[in-house]
Amino acid sequence: MRILLDKFTKKFGNLTVIDEMDLEIHDGEMIALLGGSGCGKSTTLFAICGIHKVNGGRILFGDKDVTNVTSQERNVGVVFQSFALYPHMSVEQNIGFPLKLRKESQSEIKRKVDEIAEMVHIENLLQRRPGELSGGQQQRVALARALIRRPDVLLLDEPLANLDATLRLEMRSEIRRIQRETGITAVLVTHDQTEAMSMCDRIAIMDAGKIVQITEPKDMYDNPVSDFVAGFLGSPPIAFLSGQIKDGNFIEPSTKTKIPLSGNITKNHNGRNVRIGVRPEFFQPGSGITIGGKVTFIESQGRETLFNVTLSNGTILRSIQGKRSESKIGDQVEWGIDAQKILVFDEDGARL
After folding, report:
1. What is the CATH number of the domain that holds 113?
2. What pairs with residue 317 in β-bridges?
3. What is the pTM (predicted TM-score) of this model?
């Protein structure tokens, strides 16, 4: 089911939270609305669901205008971060409850519950109560309950926020598997860039009620339109250096390091103050344009090690390395920046 938000506007009193947003979600795709608290991502989700009334514009499901259609009539499945299961009901009763409201027969409800329980791998838990389940099991029940009504759209509002790290990893792959198997159009709201990048076909990054950039995860990582987007994606995060473009190079003032830039950038922006973004995988020992600093932080992550290198002016560069390093905190190092991989932004944060 294709979803179209056409000049979507939402106000709370005199406050305009979202102003004339345009967004098209393709049939069968999973898209993430990604952003910090208060950016408008949950407001957008609740408008698609029908919980929030729209103050301007239209919402279409396929070719049908559902702007003024109630949430009950939109045929959407919603999974919240609080699993919202009925504690006095069994898993089987929780999953089948939407069909009971539709007054479907007991035999038909049983058949559909068994079918969806097998899909989400909880067929052996049907007689338990929610209080007897782990967080991951409860989330599977909530997902099954949302899917059993065969919704046109699946809406996921921070669905993994209350799970521990291991369960989040497991449920990311499970939700994506189920979405692909069913072919359902899905919208994920999250502040977690790892969830967005691993689960979704496209990401829409939001800030202050607007979509800043929308594209595939890898393209957004490689080609962010602004320093805001670049800083939102990547773990460990990108580091920024301030300096000036001069005679074909970026000049870092504290170390006088010169990093060559592409001809198009230097031709049009010579003499301007800019910021460059350096991702941790492109700041490494033994290659690139060397820059000196002191190792001020080391964190072993098992297979990889994260380093912070602080320049004389206090600016921090980050490096993530797969090979074992002998560097220690306090060491002076000269590691290299891959000049082909840096990102250049103007003083307003726009990508050059």
Report:
1. 3.40.50.300
2. 309
3. 0.89
